[in-house]
Design goal:
The protein has 9 helices and 8 strands. It is α/β, with parallel strands linked by helices. The longest helix is centred in the last third of the chain and has 14 residues. 45% of the residues are buried.
Length: 215
């Protein structure tokens, strides 16, 4: 049984948690407001869910999901994430997060910022281009014709394999974008962002992406 630790338990986090529980996993939820504020969600999810602090969730998880606003990334404690496989769902929205010049000019990717902060972790970009409700509503069993695909990117091949296996287990094919430096191909505004695409269609959309920024 796999334990999935959640750093952030909003719409995306709670939807992935529901999918993980349906797969047979256990989940440890956290947010910035404290475990007691997650009592209702834990009760809804049932006996395979519990709430904890951010550090506790990070230490408990075999796989982690970081799903917090981009502007809060540098507030995360580093030590609990060392050695962990971390799925980064984040997107950069300057109107929400403030202007981040390195992302704006293409010097670093959104997930690259998280990897730089969480030294020693194994970041895999995932789940950033699907709506929260669709994590459950568009999932289908492996081998289903026209199955939706999700993009992943990362610098650690075993970490990407673990994430791909998890994503397959909750209902989606995966397309490997490549290293974190290529993860901009599925950022906000690219052809694959938000679209319901098969693996072949997603590969074509990724290839057609033009890097945002560089201005």
């Amino acid at each position: 049984m796999t334990t999935i630790g959640f750093i952030g338990s909003g719409n995306i986090g709670s939807s992935i948690a529901r999918a993980a529980i349906a797969r047979g996993d256990e989940v440890v939820l956290s947010n910035s407001r404290g475990p007691e504020t997650l009592a209702g969600l834990v009760a809804e999810l049932g006996p395979r869910a519990r709430a904890a602090t951010t550090a506790e969730a990070a230490r408990a998880g075999d796989l982690l999901v970081v799903t917090i606003p981009f502007g809060a990334i540098n507030q995360l404690p580093v030590e609990p994430f060392v050695g962990k496989i971390v799925m980064d769902t984040n997107n950069y929205y300057p109107e929400r997060d403030g202007v981040f010049d390195e992302v704006e000019n293409g010097a670093i990717t959104v997930s690259g910022v998280l990897q730089r902060h969480l030294v020693g972790s194994r970041i895999v970009k995932a789940f950033n281009h699907i709506q929260a409700m669709q994590i459950l509503s568009t999932a289908t069993p492996s081998g289903t014709p026209g199955r939706r695909a999700l993009a992943i990117a990362g610098d650690d091949e075993p970490a990407k394999k673990a994430v791909a296996d998890f994503i397959d287990g909750i209902g989606f094919d995966t397309v490997d974008v490549g290293r974190l430096s290529e993860s901009w191909r599925i950022d906000v505004g690219t052809p694959g962002y938000g679209a319901e695409l098969t693996a072949a269609e997603l590969e074509a959309a990724l290839a057609a992406s033009v890097r945002p920024g560089r201005r």
